[in-house]
Amino acid sequence: MFVLAKGGEPLMPCHPARARELLGSGRAVVARRAPFTIRLKDRSRAGSAVAGVQLRLDPGSKATGIAVTDERDEVGAKGRTALVRRGLVSIELRHRGRQIHSGMVRRAGHRRRRRSANLRYRAPRRDNRTRPDGWLPPSLRHRIDSTMSLVARLCRYAPVLEIHVEQVAFDTALIAAAVSSREQDFSERTHAGSEIREFLLAKWERSCAYCGATGVLLNIEHVRPRSRGGSDRVANLVIACVPCNQAKGAARIDEFLADRPARLERVIAQLRRPLHDVAAMNTTRLLLVKTLATHGVAVHTWSGGRTSWNRLAMGLPKSHTLDALATGVIDLERGDAVVRIPAQILVVRSTGRGSYARTTPDRYGFPRLQRQRRKIHHGFSTGDLAAAVVPKGKWAGRWVGRVSVRAGGQHRITTLTSRFDVSHRNLRLLQRADGYTYGFADEIRLSEEHGPAYSGRTLKGGDPGNVRTPDA
């Protein structure tokens, strides 16, 4: 838990049990619900020992892993001094670049249709207009802005001394092109810090492309066999378990999956998927590091190969948060180790602050409904975190969730398992909307089975299936 001094300065994070003790004794008050932060009432920054923490980032196209760690030297049994790293807080920031891109494409389609249907009302802009230096499309700019927003917030809640960033560069030409050498094993071919095998494991979500099995030995398999003219291009490679690899043999994929048309369609669609995520990472990686340096905190960059080696050396599975925890220097010869891994991660999902549009368009892009210009009704706005105390009826009890406001005062609250309407008189504001939703998820199991940190199923209201909202 994050801790602030009585003047608002950040102190060292504490254990949740210690936070409950301080709150119960009246020595601290809740400063923020998500991420949960307390403020001490009887201690200043000058009277506290603050060693400082490190902020470690694993940027991704769809999600970014963030780990707050501290390091200290310990003397081992042989008298050698080793560096011990502890994970204090793990955060997974989920971006909404896909939604922004879809909205921009939809808007462009509406404008194009209006101009081409003899309904011209707005002249198109010139095609030779220039872009300012450092300009990025909104879907890519969002990834940097949301990451910087969360980093700036963490720097206010914790005494951050250093920022460590994994900076991965993908060679899209080599990934998409044919590989000339066949004698070299696939797992040994590296492309600027990213291995072909790791790229395929991430693309197929570490599961067999033919049966979906996870937690088993996975091989690199040619969709079109080389005996039938198949190449070593990544577009012709998938990840398959040993039984499926042996059962397929030299057969064509349409023959092997003839009895499973849904799986066949999914594999073909995944093979044709362009390298959008790779291009997004290449475009934003340098600007992200440059923007992080504006905080006045020392920024260190590390390659993806070093992070992968550290994670495997520590015996950790693959996830954004564990990659962030393994970013940096871990010297095994000296005895360095990661001794603490948070069992839960804070899932921060970017939702935005609403729409700029004042009208609701129809399927052709023409205004259909007029939206209200007021965003606050009866003291609440959409996205606020609130507690509802329902005295009677079907939904009697105490509920915590996100609010969708109505002008009449009968607001809608969305919890982890339900969604219902409640009067504004029965609501108590916990935290104002800040463009993000918060929840908790279990870290992936630290075993041989490598799976995602969350199931991906969606409940009402858009919250992931096993992500728990604060105070739920």
Short structural description:
This protein is α+β, with helices and mostly antiparallel strands and 472 residues long. It has helices spanning 16-24, 97-116, 138-157, 172-176, 196-203, 242-248, 253-256, 261-271, 276-292, 304-313, 320-325; strands at 2-4, 10-11, 28-32, 37-40, 53-58, 63-75, 81-94, 160-166, 190-191, 194-195, 218-222, 237-241, 298-302, 337-340, 344-350, 359-361, 367-370, 376-377, 380-381, 385-390, 397-404, 410-414, 419-423, 427-431, 436-442. The chain has eleven helices and 25 strands.
% residues in beta strands: 25-35%
Query: How far do the termini sit from each other?
Result: 17 Å
Question: How many beta-strand segments?
Answer: 25
Radius of gyration: 25 Å
Averaged pLDDT: 82
Helical content (DSSP H or I, runs of 4+): 10-25%
Characterize the structure shown.
This protein is α+β, with helices and mostly antiparallel strands. It is 25% helix and 28% strand. The protein contains 11 helices and 25 strands. The strands form 7 sheets. Strands 5, 6, 7, 8, 13, 14, 15 and 25 form an 8-stranded mixed β-sheet that branches. A 5-stranded antiparallel β-sheet has the order 23-22-21-20-24, with no helix packed on it. Strands 2-1-4-3 form a 4-stranded mixed β-sheet. Strand 20 and strand 21 form a beta hairpin. The chain starts with a strand and ends in a 30-residue tail after the last strand.
Compile the SSE list and pairings.
Blueprint (H helix, E strand, L loop, with lengths): L1 E3 L5 E2 L4 H9 L3 E5 L4 E4 L12 E6 L4 E13 L5 E14 L2 H20 L21 H20 L2 E7 L5 H5 L13 E2 L2 E2 H8 L14 E5 L14 E5 H7 L4 H4 L4 H11 L4 H17 L5 E5 L1 H10 L6 H6 L11 E4 L3 E7 L8 E3 L5 E4 L5 E2 L2 E2 L3 E6 L6 E8 L5 E5 L4 E5 L3 E5 L4 E7 L30
Parallel strand pairs: 1-4, 5-8, 7-14, 7-15, 8-13
Antiparallel strand pairs: 1-2, 3-4, 5-6, 6-7, 9-10, 11-12, 15-25, 16-17, 18-19, 20-21, 20-24, 21-22, 22-23
Helix pairs in contact: 2-3, 3-9
